Amino acid sequence: MTSGGLSHLDAAGHAVMVDVSAKPDTRREAVAHGLIKMRPETLAMILSGQMPKGDVLATARIAGIMAAKKTSDLIPLCHPLAISSVTVDLVPAAAGQGVEITARVRTTGPTGVEMEALTAASVAALTLYDMCKAVERDMEICQIHVIHKSGGASGTYNRATGA
Questions:
Q1: How would you class 36 by CB atoms within 10 Å of its CB: exposed for 0-12, middle for 13-18, buried for 19 or more?
Q2: 19, 55, 73, 130: the active-site residue
Q3: Most CB within 10 Å of its CB: which of 38, 49, 68, 79?
Q4: Looking at the predicted structure, is the pLDDT value of residue 2 above 50?
Q5: Quick check: 34 and 122 in contact, CB under 8 A?
Q6: Binding residue per annotation — 47?
Q7: 79 is in an annotated binding site
Q8: Computed from CA positions of residues 152, 17, 19, 11, in that sequence, does the dihedral angle turn out positive or negative?
Q9: How far apart are the first and last CA of the chain?
Q10: Domains along the sequence of the chain with CATH
Q11: Where are the alpha helices (DSSP H) in the chain?
Q12: Could you tell me the CA-to-CA distances from 61 to 26, 73, 118, 132 in Å, in that order?
């Protein structure tokens, strides 16, 4: 059981989508972060526009945004949401060791957007891998996690502070 008595299990223990119809609409936001590690030479090719498959960062950004909008189609029991905003930022990681991904999703509704932010970051990372694998196959997708969430009954969470 989760807080407020909401559960993905019915009285018989079967999986169900949680009924959130009694919850009030509130402004909600979630931010997820991820990293795809790669060789500095691969990153240099991305940044200089020399990847054989084109503008890798622009394609990964669009893929992440599209994925956030389709989260309920990908994650069982996840509510379809009217998302008001999705951004996916991709920046070189420290010391040229890869690309950092930050996905921010907003909505006003009865349930949060953590899954949408995580999906956006994950699909952006997978797209980077797909578009760069001809150059480097041993890239590593890692550290995908929620770093911020606000709105709803559970309030605000910031990973840096744990609150």
A1: buried
A2: 130
A3: 68
A4: no
A5: yes
A6: no
A7: yes
A8: negative
A9: 21
A10: 26-152 (3.30.70.640)
A11: 40-47, 56-69, 71-74, 114-132
A12: 27, 19, 14, 15
